[in-house]
Amino acid sequence: MRGDATLPDGKVTFIVGDDEDRIEHVSKSLLCVRSEYYGKMFGIGMKERDAAEITVPKTDLASFTAFIDYLCTDQLDLGEGEGEQARRALVLRELAQMYQVPRLELLCAQALQESVGPASAVPLLEAAHATGDGRLLAQCRRYVADHAAEVRASGGVEQLRDLGVAKGLLGDALDQVVELKMGAARTAAGQRAAP
């Protein structure tokens, strides 16, 4: 941030979500250096350059605070608990995409891939389907197929909301049944052919 006269002076307060919670006194210069979006927002000639407050309507305070904290400290905080961490990583990844912070987006994608487990596989599968994340979608589908009993015991099946995802999982299950039957038929044929 040193020596760049184009960076704005001052701080900004974010008004977050429907409850209009406040995140106060965030350095505009730091935001510009860490986010291309804010670099443009607070750029020369833009009306927001001198704004004291910016409204962020479509997110929750905890997630946006984690986003701002990441920009300020380069530390990713996904919260506590498997379900909360996966949910926060999803929200932070969306914020990273929106505010053009590619490193945070990659860190969130990695955290999501690492958080796939019995309780999180189905919600993550639906989120991957909704956001078009093919890599996470494939990983979750494979996890559900390989750990069906654990996913079912965790309540994952009951969590399904998206009919398209349900149809996809049913298709995966039917494909596995076909593979099992073909494998059994090959084994039986091999046993009959053996002398």
The fraction of residues assigned to DSSP E strands is 5-15%
CATH superfamily of the largest domain: Potassium Channel Kv1.1, Chain A
Average pLDDT, rounded to a whole number, is 84
CATH class of the largest domain: Alpha Beta
- Number of structural domains: 2
Gap from first CA to last CA: 80 Å
Overall helicity: 55-70%
- Shape by Cα distribution: elongated
Task: Say what the CATH topology of the largest domain is.
Answer: Potassium Channel Kv1.1, Chain A
Listing every helix as H and every strand as E from the N terminus to the C terminus, the arrangement reads EEHHEHHHHHHH
Largest sheet report: 3 strands, mixed
Helix/strand/pairing category: mainly alpha
Please characterize this protein's 3D structure.
By secondary structure, the protein is mainly alpha-helical. The protein folds into 2 domains: 8-115, Potassium Channel Kv1.1, Chain A; 117-194. It has 9 helices and 3 strands; from the N terminus they run ββααβααααααα. It has helices spanning 28-34, 36-41, 61-73, 82-98, 102-114, 121-131, 134-146, 148-153, 163-193; strands spanning 11-16, 21-27, 53-56. Strands 2-1-3 form a 3-stranded mixed β-sheet. A hairpin with a 4-residue loop joins strand 1 (11-16) and strand 2 (21-27). Helix 3 packs across helix 4. The model has no long low-confidence stretch (mean pLDDT 84). Residues 10-80 form the BTB domain. InterPro entries: BTB/POZ_dom, SKP1/BTB/POZ_sf. This is BTB domain-containing protein. Pfam families: BTB.
